[in-house]
Design goal:
alpha+beta; Pseudouridine synthase; 6 helices; 4-stranded antiparallel sheet
Amino acid sequence: MLQTLTVSPDFIGERLDKFLQLNLKSVSRTKFNLLIKEGAVLVNGERKKPNSKLKERDVISIEMDEEKKDILKPFKFDVNIIYEDDDILVVDKPTDIVVHPPQESVQDTLVNALLYMKKELSSINNKRPGVVHRLDRETSGCLVLAKNNFTHLNLVEQFRQRKIKKEYAAIVWGIVNKDRLVADLPLRRDEKNRLKMKVGFLKSKNAYTEFTVKERLYGSTFMSVNLLTGRMHQIRVHLKFLGFPIVGDKKYGIKDDYNELFLHAHKLGLYHPRSDKFMQFVSPIPERFTKFIEEHRI
């Protein structure tokens, strides 16, 4: 739903976020701040900061989803909680579950499960409450959710400033001879399949990943992965491009006999939204990894 407002003389010099709050009182200032940061609010067709000062006859357009109540249904599924307080919820996401509904007909997601468990989640986006980042359906491990809107905006900003540290574990096909690899390769959507990404240098976004060999196995390598940017399918695409597809990767890998993806969000570090204290959370290396390593150890 697109709404358009024109700045009258009464609001010359007013902050953008305050102007929106005064003129659209049904929407919170917190929600407007998020919409501005996401690029859903434009001033004369351009993105601006929440504290931008307005001029007479500025035209402001706001793209907002129509509010729907109770669109998410509880899903009976027990989620392992790594850490919880009044502001953040860190969960150990299992494989083969989507973080939030991609469409209204899908309700068997992590968010729906947390609603079943009576967890409070931020309400900035009613279609994906609490969600500030995602893991692919096939990827397991640490995921943080916001329990209130203050925390939601704080975590979104931490992700934007790359303050949040993410370390993954991966097992790939092939022997990686170097102890450390760096992939500084931009990514773009695959024009042949919009659900996939690929390395590309036109109309792309920068993507940077660091890989460290943990153990060389028979025909495969156990690796630690540091994700410095958070592009869609970044680790999987970078490893495919380098010639080391992840074991069990049906989208980007090779045909093998493994039904689960060997990519796991092992560690997650962030600054607590209230105390600004750095905290690190760990999801143990899963059994599918330890079993594979034992079976392929040289």
